[in-house]
Write a structure and sequence with these properties.
Shape: elongated
Structural class: alpha+beta
Distance between the termini: 74 Å
Strand order of the largest sheet: 2-1-3
Length: 81
Amino acid sequence: MLCVQLDTSNFVQVISPQPADITTCTMVIVAPTEVKSPFDLSVDDALTISYAVIPVFLAAFAWRMVIRALNADSSPPADTA
């Protein structure tokens, strides 16, 4: 992490030397390697998410089948040949 500040012309300027306590900085720039990706999941985290998503998909599929059954014609389709 870099402690930076804006100079008088609104350019970002790195403070040198870096303070020991980052909470005193007005702005902090974080390197991409220091940020954890939201897609970096463990197997347990992925299973927890899938256990929450799969029932939603199943409920949606069930509602779709119920609506399809209610809207279905009871007469057989006419031959168009």
